[in-house]
Amino acid sequence: MQMNSAVSFLIFFFVLPLVLADLQVGFYDSTCPQAESIVQQVVQIAFSKDPSITAAFLRMHFHDCFVRGCDASILIDPTKNNSSEKVAGPNQTVRGYNVIDKAKKSLEAACPLTVSCADIITLATRDSVALAGGPNYTVPTGRRDGLVSNPDDVNLPGPGISVSGALSSFTDKGMDINEMVTLLGAHTVGFAHCFFFSDRLSPPDPSMDPTLFAKLNKTCAKKASATVFLDQSTAFTFDNQFYNQILLKKGILQIDQELALDNSTASIVSGFASNGLGFQDSFAKAMVKLGSIEVLVGNAGEIRKSCSAFNKKKKGVF
């Protein structure tokens, strides 16, 4: 199967608020006017080679913003003397770092010490979503990079969490139930390792479609690290089919399936399943809000020269 064949390039444009949480649309217009186009070009090349990079960036962005805010702390490499968020359990399957590094290298050549790694993650995620057929939304920039990366800070909602448990994590970050269901719709692209849902296979989870169970059981019996698409219909297209899948009891992760079964979220799922444009609009707005969580602006933090290490003049504190 050719990966690109499943990808739709239909782009939707949404007008969103120009300023959010001290961030600003066009923040680099005067200091690095080509910043967004440089990131876009790097992402386009990466996407052409591997359309699953959309899911990788969405996961990276979420894992970054839900820990210390959107400060690129997830990008810091561990050293012999200091650990970092990268080694935390939930982040060990995060990928896409090499693409961020390529974008940063190009930006440093064009505009040294100007564009933050935090903004690169945000822009790369937006651009990859658009390439996969999702909304091409406007994002404010102006984030600065954090000075702390501690694996002990990584406390993220897992795939087996309940709807109420997941909602607690989202509300702690200022997001509501509609935004939670919307952002989990990012599972319309990408895949999951069997070990993330193995507890649903033994014993068989009655909330899972029997045909899907048989398929997953066969795949995962080979090895726990095997992967399956989270959307069994249009795996590389950013659309609303994820919601239709979970209505048919074809959710892979427990939290995904619970969205369609829980009374607090079932109606939202049904609404998105029947209204693709509504989902795209809601997703664009939720992503802008996600990208504003606890951001560093002004003179806070720093602009890293390399995304994987703190600047030498400002030592990181672990």
UniProtKB/TrEMBL annotation:
Residues at the site labelled Transition state stabilizer: 59
Amino-acid positions noted as binding Ca(2+) 2 in the UniProt annotation, renumbered to this chain: 188, 231, 234, 239
Subcellular location as annotated: Secreted
Cofactor binding, note field: Binds 2 calcium ions per subunit.
Catalysed conversion reaction: 2 a phenolic donor + H2O2 = 2 a phenolic radical donor + 2 H2O
Known function: Removal of H(2)O(2), oxidation of toxic reductants, biosynthesis and degradation of lignin, suberization, auxin catabolism, response to environmental stresses such as wounding, pathogen attack and oxidative stress. These functions might be dependent on each isozyme/isoform in each plant tissue.
Protein name according to UniProt: Peroxidase
Species assigned in the record: Quercus suber
Gene name, Swiss-Prot/TrEMBL: PER44
